[in-house]
Amino acid sequence: MGPTTGITSIEQASIELKEAAAFIGQRVINREEVIEQAVCSLLTAEHMLLQSRTGAAKSLLAEQIFSMFDGARLFRVQASKEQQPDTYFGGLDLDQLKYGRIMHNTEGSIVESEFGFIDEIFDANDFTLRALLSVLNERRLMRGVQNVPSPLHTVIATSNYLRISEVTEALLDRFMFKAVILPDKDPFIQYKISQRYLQLGGRTAIPPKKIPYASLKHLNAIIRGEDSQFEISVSSELLYFTNIVIRHFEFLRNRSLHDKTSSGPQSDFYISPRTQAKSLDLLRALALLKGRSNVVHDDASRLYFIFATVGLPEEVALFRKAYTTVLNSLTAARGFDQVTVLLDFTELLEEIRTEPATMKQPLSQLGRGQIRRSFFEWVREKFGSEEPQERNKLVLEQFITDFVPVCDEVRELKHSVEKVFQQTMIVVERELNRVQP
Ligand SMILES: Nc1ncnc2c1ncn2[C@@H]1O[C@H](COP(=O)(O)OP(=O)(O)O)[C@@H](O)[C@H]1O
Ligand SMILES: [Mg+2]
Asked: What residues form DSSP beta bridges with 50?
């Protein structure tokens, strides 16, 4: 890390990524959103699945995206059902095979590549797909006695249909980013596609400058909060807000699913905690793309990049609805301020919990650091300047009881804070009783 990766600032990185995205968009017409989504999958080191009917430039797009980088190995394969795992992991080592050991010679395989392009992935047989799962997910080849790490960063896979089986469902879960490309019907877009075809045939365009893979790795570290030089910050309020939006989206999706399938088996739309956690990386990637070193509400509005299938207007609209509903509810009547106050209050409780003895001191001594003024302002208003040393528990309890939520989102948070309060008091009482002689 450091100066060798060429990242000088978040703003500069954002400009270079936007230029790269624009260049890809010059070659592959009318794919702006999918391109931005792909940039996000590269920034977050996740995989992406592109679906469309044949001839919609899926392969071209994947090739053009990877051609923007330098210093990374690209493994490409056209899947077919006769293929065995060795197509992906390298031929079997015959010497080892004599002793009954299955060992792949991984040189040049997906196992030793940073990028992968798997064209028509669902043409592969289930046996091969299953073998691919751990490489995609764990970034390790784990077969028999062989267990080796893989530097695999991002795989873009394409498909022109969806084959549903147990393994394809598991596979879909490995592709955090999904897009469906609907056919381009607009005559002007058709015209531009033809124009490009006259210039380049089916070839990719050669970019004027490439992004070093080391820079991409560095950006990925920044996004994951693993870089000491650059930080993209996410406030507690935003974190809380984002989680409500995601949960509301889950609710809306399930409601619309149940409306559609009033009879017959009901399948649930489920967001795994893994995906929910990954949404943080995406938030930071979206902020970085805007040249910001902090995440704002608007970034959360684009989380449909992983929670919906880009290109399916219905799904995207539902996510936007979840976002707007929660945003409006919290913006009206200072809901966001209340969330801030309550989250600050939980930090105060956290401090008390780790240091129960502080309950015997004036609470205002805790007012330093992270905790904001709101709670102490209330204490002063309620009790004057007199420190209610003996009544700290009452003070804390009173604060939460007196708190009047302005909307359902805050009401729910208040309930959680009440629970945290009760748990904290149990810890405090146990500790203080034990310590006393
Ligand atoms: N949106 C587009 N922009 C540029 N070229 C396109 C576009 N759609 C189709 N084409 C042309 O069609 C060709 C076929 O695309 P291809 O990548 O093979 O499609 P797919 O992989 O989806 O079957 C491309 O090489 C390109 O010449
Ligand atoms: Mg193709």
From this structure: 158, 179
Full DSSP string of 19-42: HHHHHHHHHSTT-HHHHHHHHHHH
Atom of ligand 1 nearest to the CA of 200: 27
Q: For residue 108, give the DSSP letter.
A: T
Residue pair 146/105 in contact by the 8 Å Cβ criterion: no
Give tens-digit pLDDT for 386-406.
554 557 888 888 888 889 998
Rounded (10°) angle between helices 236-260 and 273-289? 120
DSSP 303: T
Ligand 1 centroid, distance to 153 Cα (angstroms): 25
Atom of ligand 1 at shortest range from CA of 184: 1
- Note the residue count of the chain: 437
- With a cut of 70, list the residues of the chain below it in pLDDT: 1-4, 261-266, 364-373, 383-390, 435-437
In angstroms, rounded to a whole number, what is the distance separating the alpha carbons of residues 301 and 294? 15
pLDDT at 369: 52
Tell how far the Cα of 46 is from the centroid of ligand 1, in angstroms: 24
Residue of 28, 60, 65, 120 to test ligand 1 pocket, by largest number of atoms within 8 Å of CB: 60
Report pTM: 0.86
Q: What is the pLDDT of residue 237?
A: 87
Which fold, 3-223? Rossmann fold (3.40.50)
Report which of 110, 149, 288 is spatially closest to residue 215, judged by C-alpha positions.
Answer: 288
State in Å: Cα 85 to ligand 1 middle: 29
Q: Which ligand is nearest to the CA of 58?
A: 1
27 CA: nearest ligand 1 atom: 4
CA distances from 213 to 3, 276, 286 (A): 14, 27, 19
The single residue listed with the structure tokens 């034990």 is: 434
Distance from the CA of 163 to the center of ligand 2, in angstroms? 17
Label residue 307 exposed, middle or buried (CB < 10 Å: 0-12, 13-18, 19+): buried
The residues lining ligand 1, judged by C-beta closer than 6 Å to any ligand atom, are 28-31, 52, 54-60, 158, 184, 193, 196-197, 202
Q: What is the pLDDT of residue 21?
A: 97
Q: Which regions of the chain carry the CATH code 3.40.50.300? A: 3-223
Q: Say how far apart CA 202 and CA 28 lie, in whole Å.
A: 10
Atom number in ligand 1 closest to CA 203: 25
